[in-house]
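User: Predict the structure for this protein chain, please.
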Amino acid sequence: MSNSPRKKLNKFAKYFLEPSNATHRQYEALRAVYVDGVAPAEAAQRFGYTTGSFHVLSHQFRENPDRDFFLPTTRGPQAAPKRDSVKEGVIDLRKQNMSIYEISKAMNESGTPISPAHVANVLREEGFARLPRRSDEERGAPLGPEGAEVADCRKLNLSPRKVHTNVGGLFLFLPMLVKMNLEQILTDCKFPGTDAIPAAHAMRSLLALKLFGSARHSHVMSRVFDEGLAVFAGLNVVPKRAFLTQYSCRITPAAYPQVMRRWFDAVGTIGGSSGNSFDLDFHSIPFHGEDALIEKHYISKRSRSQKGILSFLALDAEKHKFCYANGQIRKEDQDDEILRFIEFWKEKSGKIPEELIFDSKLTTHANLNELNQQGIQFITLRRRNQKLLEAIGDMPISAWRKIELEGVGRIYKTPKILDQTIQLKGYEGDLRQVVVKDLGHEEPTLLLTNQLKRSPSKLVGRYAHRMLIENGIADGIDFFHMDALSSAVPMKVNCDLQLTLMASNLYRLFGEQIGNGYATAKSRHIFQDFIEASADIIFTDDDQVVVKFQKRAHNPLLLAAGFGNVDVRIPWLDNRRLRFDFGHSAQSPPTTNASPVSG
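Assistant: Here is the predicted structure, written as structure tokens:
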């Protein structure tokens, strides 16, 4: 392969000087340099290498001089038995005048999976032409997607078998649902249902999606094939997306106050008595559809006003549980919603609330006067204006005094206050105004209350704890996807709100039962530690449903809380006894030094 002029070579000389394969060419080029003393640049030119590539070849030779030349390159197997058998099968079926889809289906049924695209590639490589257009009679049965099984509680398979599920933690809520008798509550409140999907089964299906809140409703299709969700609800499969949407539309608005009252009564039987102090707030749920009747409200997370659904929430400050909700509020009625909550609580518990905490935009001065007339203590904020701020700024330094907040986990624990008695239009009598500064805000905070004798530090500290309801609402938005109205499973706001309250209450009850700091932990924290767990659901021949969990670090806490001793009959699972298996002895739970979690 030399480019320099030379005499005519005979055929034997060409064998050495014009090598025909790469290995021989490398040998001759290296021999010319290291034996004949040819310069590397000349050897590279003579044998067709670039200078750089020849330097690399020389380096490799010096690193490994024992390299074997002239040996043939070892080649791998030239036959692929499996691929050849697939090809033969495709060709045989094509000779029977079958289309690529028919061939793919036949091959899959015979245990040799192959896609229609792969079939088409094989036929193209083998030179087969496309089939001519055939009549419907020649094509046979049309191919299409397989129809999903229809949800029907009567088709639930309870025969002895084992089902693996990724939502095993949901079954930890079943004992509470049995005690609450959700089926009777929904029946008494006339929730709609059918023979195939009764009301309780439909609501449990929706509630399961709320409780397993790691994703929005738009991700429900990634979970519907998990049979554990269906077993939790008492169905053979999870109802279709269209059913979930339509069911929320079939519930009459008048049914929600009834089921809410009955639900909170049931929660009280499990979680003990309710507190006497309540945090109140509005929450605007964004609306993304077209509806002329939807009003505009301020959306805090968007910092703007847009179409939305205004909902009212009340949180038991002592038990950290929602105890009231209303998603049917119009702008003209929102100021009086606090009075409707009082009537609801009076009818439910037989007494009025002792204390209400809320912000300045929740109600009017006239309604504050109504609260005072009923003997209800309240703490709220006063709206600031420039004239009011100037008057506060003119107060002498001697009028301010420093207080120390107790039990408040924050940096600013020693604010300065200005304690005053004032009168407001629409309010009969004196009101106490506590102006607070040095709380980390640019402008002072103005608290209004009818508690004239309570110490300022306790007043300021109590209002600071009101942040719990905002954290609770954030938990509902983030974990229970309360704002997911534009998802793939859109529901009526009232239904979604009711399900959020139910799920939130169940998480709070579960946390109280676990203890170790979980009573005040966020729902997402409880979900990650206990609910997001794989398990095997075992239907035994002695009428038991055993949920066998994998061994996890938090299982000892479940055993210590008594879940290892659970033996409760589940009515919607043909009255079978529910048992939990954590891989440890239920009588002798292992000790644990787990430290409390933070909320």
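The chain has 22 helices and 15 strands.
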